[in-house]
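[Automated response] Your request has been received and processed.

Submitted sequence:
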Amino acid sequence: MNKTKISQGPWTRIRPLQRDEIDPYTESGMVMGELTWGRFRNNLGRVMAYTPRLLQTEVEYCNTFIFDAETFRGDVQEAGFNDRFIKELVISRTSLENRSRYSVTHHAFIGMKLYIDADRQEEAHMKYLHLHEHELHPEIYTEREQVILDYTVKVVKDAHLVKDEEFQNLRRILREHNMSDERLKKLSEEEMDRHVDSQIVELTWLIGHFCLLNKWFTVLQVPDEGADDEDNFLAAYEAMVPKDIRDRNEEILKDGF
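Generated structure:
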């Protein structure tokens, strides 16, 4: 029997817990996720609340490789080795390949908002519309984006597919891109090699983590937040993400999770 008095939308396999059903310490983790991930009270946190320690630690943990900008402790860089724009493309490409509804919809929203806030709306529209088949549209993506997205798809499908020559090409492209950064181009050869490896480690962890999340969202059938929930994510999704991208998402998801 449900003990919550909070309005709740439909669900299937696991009923998302509400804030009046969990202890305050666990709720603090839920609120941190809300503040970080679009200021929506979300079903990710509500379902994760069944394992309180996971919810309490997940947000800070995954923010280090998703949302953190360049972060330093003294002279040591600790996070933000890749920019947010490429990270969002990687997250959405991973989630489209895995056909994971919650990640596809929420990161289409987060990604479009990121680009729009940077006054790059037209660029975002084309990149997100064709992201599921990026390899067919080299005119839309930079060489760095193409190589990283190729790498992403292979890691998602089967990490054994990544060949040594492709890995070295990824290193080369990242190094060339880094030379356009005033800070990075001052690095020594050894320092640049290490920075490139840090970028690859961060990107690969991002792909792997979203493969985990994608499977978790899908098998538990975590629902998008709609009109009957505290915050109507689907209304914001419709307002932020162009219809042709939303239609493409539905075609890939085929009304499933």
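Summary generated for your ticket: Residues 95 and 219 are 14 Å apart (CA to CA). Residues 189-220 form the longest helix (32 residues).
If you did not submit this request, please reply to this message.
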